[in-house]
């Protein structure tokens, strides 16, 4: 990037000037223990929603509503651009948090917001996931208005901040369907992910999809004696194991016929960009609490977790699992499987492929049932997508012209629901770093990065408004 | 067989004349609820031992002692032949029983002894397993003395009736070792098995051995997220499944190198004899509570359960087994395996083969532990064994000259301990039939078969005394 133009300095100056006030308000929000998993905290989740709606109104949103669901409430806000033909952008985040207790190993009160001595970090549950990353949009929006002299954002801006993300978003798809008209957008910005590292700013371009389910296998009508009958009747625990073992071939590829149908392959450019990231396998293994890396042949660890579909055994059980031995052939066994999907895979088609594969492998004398719990579609934005390029420009401005690299998310989330129900591409604007400790004790956020997030958001609305006109002729930012 | 000689009629007449008295005393014994698995019944198990010792003294045994163990007591009795060079025979059985409660589905009180209306059956816990089959030896011995005019048996007769068989005989090997001198015998007669059917008298010629153990597999130090890490680290549940699935090849043979080393193959004659048994697969499957037969290619169901070694998964567990899904890679998994062994296999060598095989299959990043719970040797008596031929002659006399066929036991039991510690061949004299319902509600014994058991025992001592001299020149009884 070349020199930073003047308005950007206005953004930086505005954000800096309002840093302390912003952090003070974020601390106030963190003190509301909006733990969606704990029924006793339902009142706090509601208080969190109301607090946020009030702050959004204070920020200037003409519309800021608490939306009821069958579970815990979400917050919706809308501020339309002055230009009727401006693009519509929906920001997604969540205001609920993971459970946290001092006894889990927190060095500070999790529902206080405690700055480090040098002020570089703010500790507290939700500091990064996701209150900090939702709240920087308020500062970013004010900086955008200030720096551009606008009285309304350059895009029709909508926010949808859900209250059950940490509980698996059980009511989120229904909410999207019910409110699809009001949520309609050209682009979705998800602010619930992170970057590679503080000195390696990145933009996430996709998430894997997911189907998971359970196979129950039934053999003898009751546990039978392995001496009297062993060797002469099929054993459902053995059959469950055979299914699990047959999931992969010798190269670590999923061996279910049709599984890879439609998979969007990594481009050479994407592989090059992944390979440029400063990946340290030893350090990654520590993060994974694991003692060896391994998987599909021909792919790097990052490619395996970000861009390749997988089959995993989440649970297996059958027969005697107590202490010592019991010489039985069990009457039943169970296998819980999950499949991460990548762009191009259709969850329903993969489910059918799994059904067919299982059915063909069950021997005479074993009955089986197969149930899927759910399906989340994968999402992926191509590197040359104009909205993605706008996001990259905004990030680069916030990070002083740094090269913005690309990551993906191995997990699966509501992003795909947004993409599917709203029919809009999903982009990810997040500034959290791996050391922030999501879901763990001593969650924190880097306060400098929160400011970068606010700056990126401040730049983004103008870039997006301009992006649809200009992106076609620009070079792809790496 | 030719016509039955006169002394046999004396045996039959004696047994018939004492039938009612015998059944009355057996009923008394059944009323003692000697459930070894129930600590609250320990006093009853002791009472059962004392009752039996008293009855054996009444029968004429000069020695009848209650033997203490680290657990529940056994009974030992000895009655020496007049001829010093007579062979020594040790009868094995057990006086403890399985638990039983009316609520389990019993139509009569399990610890009463209730005859059927026609007197053909006696219902009660232990009627067949094993009180009835131990107790017929008292009637048989008296008939033997009466019919031969002897004042002592034709063999040096010893009885060892254990009190913990239904609890896995935890203290039996120690007892055998401690008392090996007093238990020394040329032949062991186990009366704790059965026959093919009431109209198909059979003699069991062997039992399978057993090793069983547990493999623990450890992957990540804690459950990890299948999205963030799935596809890039080894999964211990998958590895447990791969081990279980690799136990057998496509022909159902155990695929562990060295597993079949030394296996004594079925002879053509044995296979012919097995094939002659009136085996009905549908009926057998009902007994097995199973819905399909299958196993090692090239063998019949009877061959598979009686004469071929096996590997079975008794239990498998790892990861999430609750309701619904949980998208994790589990930190650990467990596999419980048992291997039935046949004559010629050395349990310790098979254990080593399993250890080597497992160690070679565990991938980088997975740690494993393998523990064996125990080892029971297989036992098998060749069809031309002189003592076996003596038993066959005794059975044939009891069953009116019927052809005696051969079976084996698929299970594993203390017979092998007797064989190993005492260094004596083990024969099986049992008259129970599959419908007797061992370990099940409404256990019963066929009273006519109890009398046949007593008759066979009465004939056996003379046959065994004569057998060592004459068996070499006799034709194999089929």
UniProtKB/TrEMBL annotation, chains A, B:
Record carries keyword Protein biosynthesis: no
All residue ranges annotated as the Peptidase M20 dimerisation domain in the record: 206-363
InterPro entries reported in the protein's UniProt record: Cyt/Met_Dipeptidase, Peptidase_M20, Peptidase_M20_dimer
Highest taxon of source: Bacteria
Entry-linked Gene3D superfamilies: 3.30.70.360, Zn peptidases
Keywords for the protein's UniProt record, in alphabetical order: Hydrolase, Metal-binding, Protease
Protein name: Dipeptidase
């Amino acid at each position: 990037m070349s020199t930073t133009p003047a308005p950007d300095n206005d953004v930086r100056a505005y954000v800096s000037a309002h840093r302390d006030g912003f952090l003070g308000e974020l601390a106030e929000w963190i003190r509301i223990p909006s733990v969606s998993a704990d029924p006793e905290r339902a009142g706090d989740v509601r208080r969190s929603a109301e607090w946020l709606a009030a702050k959004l109104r204070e920020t200037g949103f003409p519309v800021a509503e608490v939306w009821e669901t069958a579970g815990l409430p979400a917050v919706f806000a809308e501020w339309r651009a002055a230009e009727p033909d401006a693009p519509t952008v929906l920001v997604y985040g969540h205001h609920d948090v993971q459970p946290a207790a001092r006894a889990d190993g927190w060095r500070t009160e999790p529902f206080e917001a405690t700055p480090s001595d040098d002020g570089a970090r703010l500790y507290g549950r939700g500091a990064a996931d996701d209150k900090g990353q939702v709240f920087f949009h308020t500062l970013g929006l004010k900086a955008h208005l200030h720096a551009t002299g606008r009285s309304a954002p350059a895009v029709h801006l909508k926010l949808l901040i859900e209250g059950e993300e940490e509980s698996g978003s059980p009511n989120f798809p229904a909410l999207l369907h019910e409110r699809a008209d009001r949520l309609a957008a050209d682009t979705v910005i998800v602010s619930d992910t992170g970057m590679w590292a503080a000195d390696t700013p990145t933009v996430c371009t996709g998430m894997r999809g997911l189907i998971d389910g359970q196979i129950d296998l039934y053999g003898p009508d009751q546990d039978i004696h392995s001496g009297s009958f062993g060797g002469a009747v099929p054993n459902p625990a053995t059959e469950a194991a055979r299914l699990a073992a047959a999931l992969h071939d010798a190269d670590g590829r999923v061996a279910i016929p049709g599984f890879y149908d439609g998979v969007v392959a990594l481009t050479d450019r994407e592989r090059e960009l992944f390979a440029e990231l400063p990946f340290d396998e030893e350090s990654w293994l520590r993060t994974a609490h694991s003692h060896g890396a391994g998987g599909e042949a021909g792919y790097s660890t990052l490619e395996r977790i970000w861009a390749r579909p997988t089959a995993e055994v989440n649970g297996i059980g059958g027969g005697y699992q107590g202490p010592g031995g019991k010489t039985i052939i069990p009457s039943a066994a169970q296998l819980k499987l999950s499949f991460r999907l990548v762009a191009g895979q259709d969850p329903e088609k993969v489910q059918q492929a799994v059904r067919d594969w299982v059915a063909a492998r069950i021997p005479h004398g074993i009955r089986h049932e197969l149930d899927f719990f759910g399906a989340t579609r994968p999402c992926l934005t191509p590197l040359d997508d104009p909205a993605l390029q706008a996001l990259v420009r905004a990030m680069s401005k916030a990070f002083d012209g740094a090269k913005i690299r690309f990551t993906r998310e191995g997990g699966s989330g509501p992003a795909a629901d947004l993409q599917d129900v709203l029919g809009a591409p999903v982009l990810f604007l997040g500034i959290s770093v791996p050391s922030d400790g999501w879901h763990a004790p001593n969650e924190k956020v880097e306060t400098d990065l929160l400011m970068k997030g606010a700056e990126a958001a401040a730049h983004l609305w103008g870039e997006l408004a301009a992006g649809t006109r200009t992106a076609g002729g620009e070079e792809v930012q790496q």
